[in-house]
Amino acid sequence: MQKEEVQQGLERFIAARTGGSVTVSNLARLSGGASRETWSFDADTPQGRIEGILRADPVPGAPTIPGRELEYHLIKAAWDAGVTVPEPLWDGDDTFPVKFFVMRRVPGETLGARLIRGEQYAKAREVVPYQLARDLARIHAIREADHPELAGLERPPAGKTSAEAQLDYYETSYRTAELDPHPVFELAIRWLRQHLPPPSELVLVHGDFRLGNFIFDETGVKGILDWELAHWGDPMEDLGWLAVKSWRFGGRLPMAGVGTREAFIEAYEAAGGRKVNRQHFLWYEMFGNLKWGVITMTQAATYLTGRNRSVELAAIGRRTAETEIVLLELLEGRWD
């Protein structure tokens, strides 16, 4: 959408909800990929200034997963459950030719390396693991029975556990995209097949819960972001993904680079999270490293086959070897 279209539309949309004249200023489109448009703005309303974010689908009639309407309901359910998320203000209407919603803007930082290295974040590094554990426990407590608006989220097919369905999906992605042999991936897939965890209760899984996908400042976590991969699944998936080595951004500790596994598990359980089976958790950490490795490989294949000549995809593809080293360490029992 064009800037003038967004400004005029926001002014009409917010005015209808605040009961008076609205002026939108400081409107700027933020980076965020092709799957959505994200605009930052300030709106002066009869009730005061709103520092807001507009999230919109990029193309009329082209659904995204999840769509913006479902993303709004996810954030609203999380907000109502006490999760640290930006406040969802309004779901969209027909103001724009695409689905959209508006939420409050949260100031802070998202770059993971800055949390790990920044002197100003020393106190945040101490509290972030406990804050994330609390938020994850609250996410996993959200029940489908209480939120029929979330019924459209993906779930494992009948007859398969969440772990099996996830492994099937990424093995298929690997087989489809493989251009060269990757014996480490073969070993990891075999190990994961041989050690599949037992069935678990399906809960709301964030799906991309990691350093880099939450806003933080000197006091810690300010907002959990990036709900695009949310689904009904195994709660240990989120714990294992948070521990993936690539998401530590050079941090020495496994959980978001700043926390130990045991302290995180204790905080998660104390906040009402599911009782954690350590082997179940480690299975998902192994799987998370394989999953990220497959993603890097498929993005490289997209570049190498000429489907997309983005240098970013090529650069990400170079990280496949990193995940193979990590997987070899884990297969040898070296969990750092």
From TrEMBL:
Lineage of origin: Bacteria, Bacillati, Chloroflexota, Tepidiformia, Tepidiformales
Top-level taxon of the source organism: Bacteria
Keywords of the record: Kinase, Transferase
Keyword Signal: no
Domain Aminoglycoside phosphotransferase intervals: 28-271
Pfam families recorded: APH
Protein's recorded name: Aminoglycoside phosphotransferase (APT) family kinase protein
Molecular function (Gene Ontology), one example: kinase activity
Organism for this UniProt entry: Tepidiforma thermophila (strain KCTC 52669 / CGMCC 1.13589 / G233)
Keyword set includes Transferase: yes
